[in-house]
Specification:
The chain is an alpha+beta fold. The chain is about 25% helix and about 15% strand. The protein has helices at about 35-45, 70-80, and strands spanning about 50-55, 85, 90, 95-100. A four-stranded mixed sheet has the order 1-4-3-2, covered by helices on one side.
Length: about 100
């Protein structure tokens, strides 16, 4: 396993680093939720075998409506050893990120 990138969490998001099955944060647009969650989930996926993440939106008509592009950019920026495909991101340990619309 490669060395994990150091991701600095904003103070209000420090709970992301603590182990909990469900994590919920509230805030308006531009509060940094999506980017902070994305970075932390990528770190978790690299350090945890078979780590599975489901990225949902109420309405997602295409992969362009999802956070796929942002995750891909962070995979490239931090050089995670993940396989980025058109509709899924796979980890070497058998985990994945999937994208799904709820409606």
């Amino acid at each position: 396993m490669s060395e994990l990138p150091v991701i600095q969490l904003p103070l209000r998001f420090e709970a992301l680093a603590r182990p909990k099955r469900l994590k919920v944060f509230f805030g308006g647009r531009g509060s940094g939720k999506s980017e902070t969650f994305a970075r932390q989930l990528l770190v978790n996926a690299e350090s945890t075998p078979r780590y599975k993440v489901l990225c949902t939106r109420e309405y997602q008509n295409s992969i362009d409506d999802s956070v796929h592009g942002m995750l891909k950019a962070f995979v490239d920026q931090y050089q995670f050893p993940f396989e980025v495909q058109n509709t899924v991101i796979n980890t070497p340990s058998g985990g994945y990120f999937k994208f799904f619309g709820l409606s």
